[in-house]
Amino acid sequence: MDKSVATNLLAAICVAVGYFWPNAMLQTIGLFALSGAVTNWLAVHMLFEKVPGLYGSGVIPARFEQFKAAIAKLMMEQFFTRENIERFLSQSGSAVDRLNLTPVINKVDLEPAFNALVDTVANSSFGGMLAMFGGTDALEPMKQPFIDKMKASLTELADSEQFHTLLKEELEQSDLLVGMQDKIQKIVDQRLEELTPQMVKQMVQQMIKEHLGWLVVWGGVFGALIGLAAALLQQ
Q1: Residue ranges of E strands in the chain
Q2: Among 22, 85, 92, 169, which residue's CB has the most CB atoms within a 10 Å radius?
Q3: Total count of domains within the chain
Q4: pTM for the complete prediction?
């Protein structure tokens, strides 16, 4: 069972048992735990989904264009530099047909891309709640899954038949070094235009939702502790 669902269910059971027992302390603990868990679950949900009436929700899809621009910048500044292009063109034979960017992608430092994503989350409406659980350090466990997923996505993009076809057509139509980076930029942009906000949302959601689920768990735990303290003070 998903840990977020399990946390909310356990808290709800405590409320129900405390109500029908009756046991005021158990009911208070359950109510506070349920409040903390549900609130954090809603905050995680709001990262990916637009909730009517809740300002700041859907921050990941809302930053869709910035996400695409970051990928395009990464491709051009780390893959298709002038030095790499000249090295690529100096190879003999049909270089495009055997182009393999996987070794290059594996060496690329994607930590700046992860840091940009963390900044986006921290500066969103979710940032205040994130600060209650250690701030951006709470997102540190998702760094490697994010980097692995990004490398897989970039490898898939660079290895696609359409990308190779477009690159080959451009190379065959003009002088090789004249405006080469501009031509490759157009190819990258054209390929990224196929991305939709839904695709970006799913990509990021798969990478980080598992880790943010712990915020729901800890929300329930801390809520229960606060409820316990409140119940003891009332006695």
Answers
A1: none
A2: 85
A3: 2
A4: 0.55
